[in-house]
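[agent] plan:
  1. take the single chain provided in the ticket
  2. run structure prediction with default settings
  3. attach structure tokens to the ticket
  4. add a short note for the reviewer (M.T.)
[agent] executing step 1
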Amino acid sequence: MKVKIIVSTLAVLLGTFLLFSNTADADRVSPLASWRGFGHHYEEDEQIFSQEFKQREALTAACMQQQGQNYQTRILDNTSSQLNISDPNGDRSEARTSNEAYFLALYGEVNPEISTADLDTNADGVIDYAESFGGGCSGDAHREVLGVFAAKAILTEEYNQLRLEAQTSPVVLAAEQDWLACVAKNKDFQGSSRTQILSQLDAQLDQSETRALLDECEPGYHLVRQGEVIRQETLFVYQHQKTLEEFGVSVEG
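[agent] step 2 finished; step 3 output follows
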């Protein structure tokens, strides 16, 4: 029953979001949507990532063959919620001790100990992302196909900070209080946050009541939240334009 309750609320929320997104608000598009890997084109990005993984594996296998090593390409399974990689080559930590030549060809060093300082090739405090993959056939393949999520990987800390600030900004918190007041006019719920109230809806209301409540209270919050996300992402693109241009994948290709 719990799964059905969660799905019901999410379905109503999604319906409200899509309905509202088709209004005049829909023309507000974040400049970050022009770059892949940041959640604006999730399904397409996942498909590209799968293709890139196969490309890297093919490059690695060809390189290993040239060095007289038998490397079987790994298999990526991203059909579930977790990323699973099947490696027919066995335990790579065992390969390091039992077959140094194989490990050397694959990674470039038998026991690589690379420090952050080693990756700061320009001594400017910025890590050389391409060099972070190490040497050998594996490193060369990753440098050849950096991938759709390369910019996101480099800017992970900054991007996570963006999401946090968008969620906790004063305007969004004020909008959440307005949302709580809107809900309180209609029903008596126990909780001090939007998340807490949403978790109670299906337990206390039928679907038509939930729909009516969200249709009334959700649009205002959504407007403010979306506006703040766009503002934060616009600043993010401005601050990290150089990294995006060097490592990012443009939606326009």
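[agent] step 4 note for reviewer: The longest strand covers residues 75-77.
[agent] ticket updated
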